[in-house]
Design brief:
By secondary structure, chain A is mostly helical. Chain A is built from 8 helices and 2 strands. A two-stranded antiparallel ribbon of chain A has the order 1-2. The chains are: A mainly alpha, B mainly alpha.
Chain lengths: 203, 185
Amino acid sequence: MNKNNFLPYFISLIGMFLLSPPYFAYGLIMLLAFNIVYSVTIYFSIYLDGIEKKYKDLLLLLGSGILTVLIHLLITFFSPIIGTTISFIIYLIPLATYTFDTLLNKETNLVQEKTIISFKTLGWLNIIAITFTFVREIIAFSSISYPTRAGIVALNIPYNIFEKITFFGSTIPGILILTAFFMMIIPLFSLNKKSHKEEQESN
Amino acid sequence: MIFQTILMYLILCTLCLIFEVSLKKLYFLPETNKTIAFSALKTIVIVITSTLISFLLLKYVLIRFNFTFILPFFIILSILSFSLLFELINKKMFELHTSDFVLCFISIFIATSEGTSLLNSLLIGITSVSCYYLVLYVLFCIDKQNSSVIKATSANIIPLLLLALATIILASYSWDVSWLSIRFF
């Protein structure tokens, strides 16, 4: 994932998190499930490299779907409230993973290179997702939450700097505006990095 | 009842505005009207057949054996099998697209979980998909307007499209929808 092709990854990732409730705890659980499914799918995809594309897609989606069912059962076993809340959203993970695999196949065919790129992408996606869900909860409810067996526990921030926009931040238009803001910010970082490197090289 | 369902799922509780399924389509915008027409046809047929199967499966098997949590998995399975069937008919016209998966999945899930009868579920599914293609045309118009003003790169245009989508949602929410309730009908 680089500056030029980060958008499809970002959209697939955020599409998954937009549907979950705007709490950091749910974001963490979703991210954990996503990491497991994605890591297994990378190896599964490499294993199935010789098979024709349409059958490979079918097997990949089936495999990731079965894995998601298992993870959902484990989450429900850990906390029934969290399991019920994300019961339908968690099934977007196999669909997102399928998108990532399709995108990665366009980039390279070499096994080693593909593995390195996949895990690098996964690392970047984790950073983006954690930042997004964290900022989203602070803006939406001005709290930070974490998952427990009895549901989630939210810790309120004593000084609410987003008091005026708290209600708007928890609505869908508010989250869309936040997503647009993220989309504008992320390329700027990589752009600055590149220009800084270029400056150093020229010096 | 039919009019109320269509109005609710076509304008007010639209999939694109509530569940943001259009986000992916913003990046993978189809090129021509023909592509959109074939994509719409494929999606509608997949949604109809999968809703039919999922609803019957839910009603006669999953609820009876208390296995409702496994329904999304069966929905994914049915979407995949029908997509493959379409691909076998004509690969160029009915190519499997990543963004179509989410649209099919969410519309079938909503249709099976919110529909009161089989016909009602089918109506919800069809209306949700049609609403999606309506919003897609609105986004195309905004995209064309933006392209004529600023330098057209997806990195520039997608945030602007998102802001436009947010404005559309705010406009639709400002309309008082309480009269849609059956009590006032």
